[in-house]
Structure formats: C-alpha cells, structure tokens
Amino acid sequence: MLKQSPVYERKAPTSYHHGNLQTALLNAGLDLLERRGCADLALREVAREVGVSPAAVYRHYASKEALLTAMAVEGFKRLNAEQIEPISNSVVTPVRFAEMGRAYVRFAVRNPALFRLMFSDQIDSSRDASLMFAIEPLTGNIEDAVARLAGPRFSSAMRRKAALRAWSLVHGLSMLMIDGQLRIAHSEIDRMIEAVVDPNHALAI
Hints:
globular; Homeodomain-like_sf; AcrR family transcriptional regulator; MT1864/Rv1816-like_C
C-alpha cells in the first residue's frame, strides 16, 4: 500500500520583528516597482515580499495610492540629494552646473519605473503635503544654481526662465532614454548627456 505524501501547508506571514516595518515596506515596494511596473504592484505582494500579513501593510499604507505617493516622495528625496551634491560645498561653475544635469539623467536611467511614477498622473501632489514638499527643491535647486552661476546680471524672472530651460533639457533627455527612443549603449550615455547638458544653452536668455 502506497503511503500518502505529507501535505505541506503554506505558513501565514509572521510578525515583522526587524527594524522599521514602514521603511521595509517602502523599500519592497520600490524594488517591486522596478521589477513589475506600477500596474502590477499590489499591497498583498508587498506584504509577501517583507513577510508580513496584508493587515500589517494597511496599518502604514491605507491604499495602493498611499504607497505610491510615499514611493514618489522617496524618489524626489533621492533625486534632490544626487542633484545638489555637485554644488553643495563649492562655487557653482559651468562644469558643476552640467554635473547637476548629468546626475538628473543618470537617476532616471537607473530608476526608470520610479522616475515615471514621480511625474505621472497616478499621484496627486495637491492632496499630499509631503509630496509637495519633496517636489519643491527640484526646481529650487536648479534656480539657485543658475543664480549663483549667472550672478546679479540675472533678474528673478530670468533665473526662473533659465532654470525651466535647463530642467526641460534634462527631463526630456531622461524620458527619451528610459522610453527607448534613444537607443545608445551605456558607454555612450555620458557623451549624450554632455552634448545636451550645456550650461551655455540654459543661460542663453
């Protein structure tokens, strides 16, 4: 007589005991976003990744939109930190201004799904103060760099115009690259960025 094979039951997720659960959920969401895309991201899957029950996720993120918003906030924080680093403790020169643009494009290329989410209509910055606060430095950093680079010869209106031009250049290049419209080898990325991110163009008012 054949012995019956034992039945293995999948264990329910256990309580999360290590570190900050909210941060762990956020990081798991960011990882899933890049692997699966926004459409296939579900809170239950995030819970499985971390090893907790779905109920534990809802205690920190009441909905998928709440998690997506938190992920976008984190994305803007990381982008702002990388973008400001070239000019954080030094005089703004044309070379360092261009490096800000390169940092922007490199961030997009490394995090394409997150970058798309940050600027998508799936999140509403007008309804979340933390998201609005995270977005503000994006143009502020560029405008501040323009002011330091151009000096008193630029009025506030001219600084805003130059900052918008610089942002448009790097954002447009970023979208073209992550959407596959510019099919270039990784070894050519810096050369392409160098060709577009020219401070003389941004300051040509």
